[in-house]
Amino acid sequence: MTVSLLGAADIRRLAAELDVTPTKKLGQNFVVDANTVRKIVQAAAVQPSERVVEIGPGLGSLTLAILETGASVTAVEIDHRLAARLPQTARDRGVPEGALTVVDADAMRVTELPGEPAVLVANLPYNVSVPVLLHFLETFPYLQRGVVMVQAEVAERLAAKPGSKIYGAPSVKAAWYGPWKLSGTVSRQVFWPVPNVDSLLVGFHRDPQPRGSDQERLRTFAIVDAAFNQRRKMLRQALSGIFGSSAEASAVLESAGVAPTARGEDLTVDDYHRIARVAPKD
Ligand code: SAM
Question: What predicted TM-score, i.e. pTM, was given to this entire model?
Answer without folding.
Answer: 0.97
